[in-house]
Amino acid sequence: MKKIFNETINEILYYDTFENGLELYFMPKRGFESKYAVLGVDFGSNDLEFIPINEKEKIRVSDGIAHFLEHKMFEQPDESNAFDEFSKFGASANAFTSFTMTAYLFSATENFYPSLRHLINYVQTPYYTEENVNKEKGIIAQEINMYRDDPEWNVYMNCLKAMYASHHTSIDIAGSVESINKITPEELYKCYNTFYNPANMKLFVVGDLDEDELFNCVRENNNLERDFEKEIKRFMPSEQDGINTYRIEEKFAVSMPLFYIGYKDNPKDSEKTLDRLKKEISTDILFDIIFSESGDLHSQLYDSGLITGSIYGGYLSQKDYSYALASGSSNQPDLVKEKIDQYIDELRRNGIKKSDFEINKKKKIGGFLKSFDSISFIANNFLRYMFRGINFLDYLQVLKNIELSDIEDRLDNFFLKEKSVISIVSPKK
């Protein structure tokens, strides 16, 4: 077991890698009643093309299969459901699939170790049959149809489709009814055996626990016989630098138009991970300078009646794609985008006020330190960054080192009109 003490945030992190490649991270939180564990798999909805383990040829699996597999992990060979066991222990469990990862988690104030053993065991127990896979198709189809009727989800997904022509991030995480109907038990086992490889998984635990007891518990329950190659060959279609289409509009039963404005970024493979983190945080600060409720742009849009509330959003950076999203509601969303484009051009000409930079940087530091009171925030973000090769404990130091010149550099190279799109959901007449 190794130990890191981070002076910047005054936190200790214990970690180790077991013989089969599973990485365990533990952050003690003395005095916290609740404990939290999340087992993450480096497998998201974007992972559609890869070479399965022990095979040589690349395959393309069905859209939505990572999310489908997440659903199926809860069904056990004895026909029980993994959630039922958590309920017996008094633990609150959940799971989620994103574009880039799948996570299984629980929080508990008591019976933590029985719950942890259960988490590790059920995720190591795939059980897919023709019958139970076909049954799940109906359940997931209902979920997909529910999202199809959700204007918020559609205006978001259409914004991604407007930005990306080929990248899998423009494909709905759950897939479509047509794509999930093609999923077979064999396809699920290919994905499970390839990606639910211990060397492709990380477990993060946070709470008031003894580190030796925790590491022994995981070691005893971790299937050490499962040992695979760490490198998984994944493929992604080549994505153009420019946007796919400038504007997408759909009609829904909404009282006022909703909009998402997207700014496409093009991350470079050669960038070092800490440089990527610095760019991410710098862009997030710049986003707040431009769009925050206390800023000049918001005042102009709100006072003129162009928007009815705040503009929400931020910058998202992943391994092979990055973008910023700004969303809100307005009766004239195209005019809102025009005003935003004008404001950003003026900001480039006039420069960013040093006081605006310092206020927003301090606000971000304060928000980050406050968020360390949330054990789920710590665990989920740690895994999210670790799968990108970034130690989340470095975040605050990188944030503190950011200068006004870093923000100005991002303003010169990002939030460009020619790489921006707008997605609108407008009311049906």
From TrEMBL:
Sequence ranges assigned to domain Peptidase M16 N-terminal in this UniProt record: 63-173
UniProt entry keywords in alphabetical sequence: Hydrolase, Metalloprotease, Protease, Zinc
Domain Peptidase M16 C-terminal residues, every copy: 182-362
Domain of life: Bacteria
Gene3D superfamilies assigned to the protein according to its UniProt record, in alphabetical order: Metalloenzyme, LuxS/M16 peptidase-like
Short name of any one Pfam family annotated for the protein: Peptidase_M16_C
Protein's UniProt keywords contain Mitochondrion: no
Keyword match Heme: no
NCBIfam families for this protein: YfmH_fam
Family classification: Belongs to the peptidase M16 family.
Record's protein name: Pitrilysin family protein
Organism field: Peptostreptococcus equinus
